[in-house]
Every structure is written in structure tokens, then in C-alpha cells.
Specification:
Elements: E1 3-14, E2 21-23, E3 26-28, E4 30-40, E5 45-50, H1 54-69, H2 77-86, H3 98-119, H4 123-127, E6 134-141, E7 144-145, H5 152-160, E8 165-169, H6 174-188, E9 193-197, H7 204-214, E10 219-223, H8 231-240, E11 245-247, H9 253-262, E12 268-269, H10 279-291, E13 295-296, H11 304-314, E14 332-336, H12 341-344, E15 358-359, H13 372-378
Parallel strand pairs: 6-8, 6-14, 8-9, 9-10, 10-11, 11-12, 12-13
Antiparallel strand pairs: 1-4, 2-3, 2-7, 4-5, 6-15
Helix pairs in contact: 1-3, 2-3, 5-6, 6-7, 7-8, 9-10
The protein binds magnesium ion.
Organism: Halorubrum glutamatedens
Pfam families: MR_MLE_C (PF13378), MR_MLE_N (PF02746)
Domain Mandelate racemase/muconate lactonizing enzyme C-terminal: 152-244
Length: 381
Amino acid sequence: MRVVSVEPIPLEHPLGSGRAFGGTRGVTDTRTATLVKVTADDGTVGWGEAFAPPRTVATLIEEFFADAVVGLDPWDAETLADAVYTGEIGGYHFGRQAFTQAALTGVEVALWDLRGKALGKPVRELLSGQSHDAVTPYASTMYITEWGQDPAEPMERAVEEGFTAAKIKIGRSVEDDVHRVRTAREILGDDARLMVDYNGNYTATDALESIRAIEEFDLTWIEEPVPPEDVDGYRRLRDAIDVPLAAGEAHHGRFEFTDLVRENVVDVVQPNLGRCGGFAEARYLARLATTNNVRIRPHVWNSAVGLAAAIQFAATVPSYPMRSDRSTRPILFEFDRSENPLRNELLAEPFDPTGGELSVPDAPGLGIEIDETAVERFRVD
Ligand SMILES: [Mg+2]
């Protein structure tokens, strides 16, 4: 099997006036995604997603990857990241950069999708002998909204939908943080897992004050309390508090993640399967993390394609150091509950995270069927 074409497809969905939302560092008024469609000489199609500004990363895929990937065997996915780091693809200076890593990821994941389809096996089986049939979805919700939404509303909806875990946005002020966390915990109940996400909006001093005020609410992890580049801030927090720290959605590639794990400042690393470098890089990161006794849980804020890739990866996350048959820790899986038709409408059969469990597809490759008429509806090139 050989690749005969690589096509980036930029997508957009404007949210409409007054409907912008996001985290404490800013809100977005448009949902976007960049799909990568890779076609093989026998007509098989593989899909990936590059998580980056759509027109920019689409151009990058055309400029750096299209010619380089045509003619490759899908098994070359194993070394595609190496080709990017060495400059064989894209030139020596740009391999480690965020947009190049996102472009690489979209193409690399599409090659794995082809590979799975050629073998008739889901990607999770190609990545790991040990894989889970289901993961535990957590509602990523309680966003900061332009329209001043009552934070209780989205959490009540998450509980009605059967979620047993949730992650909420905080980081505007200590008083607001306490209000939002208390609201979430009261609605979720004592048994549910609750995570908080600051999107790096505090200094270590501010974060410490906030965490001390909310730690009584039994938090499973605290995400990006300080900016990703503030390693000393993470270290200060880790020395001072007992709640696990998480980071990684703003990290790219094996070198940045290796630094993050080796600094020994976080308990959970969170690669995104739309920009971490691809499945082969993510599999390496899983080994790296567990070798250092750090957990790995993907960050997911993608369209249906990046979501499908993340589910395949999450299904292979090792339970080490616990025995796999005795692990009491669920594989928590981020499921965005905000408006995004690119998550729901691109698939013939959308994912259903309700009821507290998310099945991992068993069909070959990413295990999804793309509705190409829906893709065309959101296309912006
Ligand atoms: Mg986050």
C-alpha cells in the first residue's frame, strides 16, 4: 500500500453573536479543525486531525508534507516524527515548532488509520497488546462564557447525562474559584471525580492561594495552574500542596514532554492527539510517563477525528505501577460538552459519552466513518 494523495481540509463553525466561550485566558467565537485526508493506491482513505489554526496548518501540510508523504507506505508512520526532527521533512529549523508538530500529527494519525484499515484492526491493537474496551468520560464543562452563564446550568446537564466526573474552568479570582468549585461539587455529589483547569492564568503565588481555598473539595487533579513555561512555578506548587498537578496540552513532541516528565513537577501529562506528534510519539510518551511513575491522560478539545484518535490512544494507557487487573483508577477521558458540531456531525455514528462510560471503537483504524457531505458543509478553503 502506498500513499497517492494528502489533502488538508480546514473547517470552521462560527458560534454566533454573544456565544463566545472558553477559559480564563480568553474566549473563542469559532470552533475550528483541520482534517487530513490521506488516500492510498488501493482507494483506502485514512483520516487525521491537526489541532492548530486551520488555514495556517493546512498551508503547512501542503508545503511541508504533501509531496514528502506521497509514495510512503503507511508503516512509515513509525519514523515520520524522526523525519520532521531531522529536517528531512520541512527543513532543519522548524521540526520542534508547534504548527509543524500539529501538521505532523494530522498526517501521522491518518497513516495509522490507513495501517489499521489495511490490517483490519483498530489502532489500539497496533499500539499495544493491552487495551481497554471502554474509558470513563469526564465532562469538560462550566466554561467562561461571553453571555455570563450560571455555572450551575452546564453541571446540572452533565449530571443528567450520567457523567461521573467533570472538569471545570477556574482562575479569575480566588473568590470566583471557590464559588465555581463549590457549585460543581454540590451538583456532582461527593463520589464524582472533579478536576479544575486554570489554563495557566495565575502566578504560583496566586495559584497557591486559590488551591489552598479549594483543596477541601477533593480534587482529582489541578490542570495548568501556572503557564506551561513556568517550571519553577510548578515545582513550588508541587512542594507545597498534595493535590496532583496536570499539564501537557500546550506541549509538543517528545523533547518538550521529556523535559516535563524529567523535571518531576507534574503527576499527569496530557498530550493532544491533534498536535503531540502523533501515535508513535504518544506511545513513547506513555512509556516515558509510566517509567517515571507519572500518569498520562489525553487532552481532547478536537473534532470527531482527533477525538477518535485520542480514544484509541487512551485505550492503551498502561496502568503501571498498578496491576492491570487490580487498577482502581479509571482511564479518565476528556469529553468537551460545549457547542461544537465538528465533534458531533462529521461522523456517521457520533460518540456517545453519556451514561458514565465511553466504548472504544473496534472497527479498523480509528474505527470511525466520516460523513464527507458534513465535512464539505464546514469547509473554509
Ligand atoms: Mg486544559
